[in-house]
Specification:
The chain is of the alpha+beta class. The chain contains 15 helices and 5 strands. A 5-stranded antiparallel sheet has the order 2-1-5-4-3.
């Protein structure tokens, strides 16, 4: 990136223009690869995409988990309240297990959550919510790992948020930036309350109050939240309130725009600060659910922002 002048063009320019020439050539060359051989080799859409492969993997997981526990089919059948014949049919693929049987089976053999979710995936069911995530604010992964992830991203902002878009952990860079751009909103929170990212956008002294081009950023966040609220009902009312707030402050939602707004900037007492942000999940693929925690990290777009952030965390 080459400083502030690149920001207005980012939303209108192909991402290819920001890639090195070698990477653009690689992307162009990939367009000529015939996908059919890859699909036949199981490299496209996953090696377990076919129903037969899914059924085979499910049988392997269930049989292997029982054997690793040292249980015979008869012993497991007695514990689960099924006949040994039915257990045998399930392991051989001649009977299709219900979700309840899969969950009870893997609970009985004390299988790891990732193994349980892999089995549910192969059976065509949605995965379980990791570590009771829907009922607990604790992240499903090791808290020390999260702490290290946020720490190594210093001095640049990084935080962890839940499916309701409430921040559960943040590094010093993120905490400092929030205190710089929305101090009055933070003063409305009670001790121990998480930062509600949606409410922070609605509040007149919140996240958008010092944002450059707040209408574009606000409606971009709305587009992402609107998509998520289709599957997460707890977001619906708050996303609706966000839309009403944005319409009142910035006019109707533009027809053209991207969801998420990866580039954003603030006008602050420290000057203009510009960032590129992205979100990531830390769960294994089979453990990802609608309740999975996410990490959002931001990177400076120019040397000035970089220097300000570096100095800020040492204040």
């Amino acid at each position: 990136m080459h400083g502030h002048e690149t920001l207005p063009d980012f939303h209108r320019t192909s991402c290819d223009s920001f890639l090195p020439r070698q990477q653009r050539l690689l992307r162009h060359d990939l367009q000529f690869i015939d996908p059919l051989p890859l699909e036949r080799r199981g490299l496209l859409n996953g090696a377990d995409a076919s129903p037969a492969a899914c059924a085979s993997n499910l049988c392997r997981i269930l049989r292997g988990s029982r054997e690793r526990r040292g249980l015979s089919q008869m012993e497991l059948a007695l514990r689960l309240g099924f006949s040994a014949r039915h257990i045998s049919f399930v392991e051989s693929g001649r009977a299709k297990p219900s979700r309840l049987l899969i969950e009870s089976w893997l609970e009985e053999v004390d299988a790891q959550p990732s193994i349980r979710n892999a089995a549910l995936h192969h059976a065509g069911f949605t995965p379980q919510s990791s570590a009771g995530l829907s009922a607990s604010p604790a992240p499903p992964w090791n808290a020390r790992l999260l702490e290290q992830l946020l720490f190594v991203h210093e001095p640049f902002p990084a935080f962890c948020f839940d499916a309701d878009w409430k921040i559960r952990a943040a590094n010093r860079g993120a905490s400092w930036l929030m205190s710089l751009v929305m101090p009055r909103y933070l003063q409305t929170l009670r001790p121990g309350d998480p930062v509600d990212m949606i409410e922070a956008c609605i509040h007149p002294d919140g996240l958008l109050s010092r944002m450059r081009d707040p209408g574009t950023v606000g409606w971009g966040l709305f587009r992402q939240l609107e998509l998520e609220s289709a599957a997460t009902h707890t977001l619906h009312q708050r996303v609706r309130r966000l839309a009403l707030s944005l319409e009142e402050r910035f006019g109707t939602c533009p027809e053209n725009g991207i969801a998420g707004c990866p580039v954003f900037g603030f006008d602050t007492a420290r000057g203009r600060l510009d960032f590129f942000r992205f979100q990531s999940l830390m769960d294994l693929p089979q453990d990802v659910t609608l309740r999975s925690f996410r990490v959002e990290v931001s990177l400076p777009m120019d040397d000035h922002t970089k220097r300000v952030m570096q100095a800020a965390v040492h204040e």
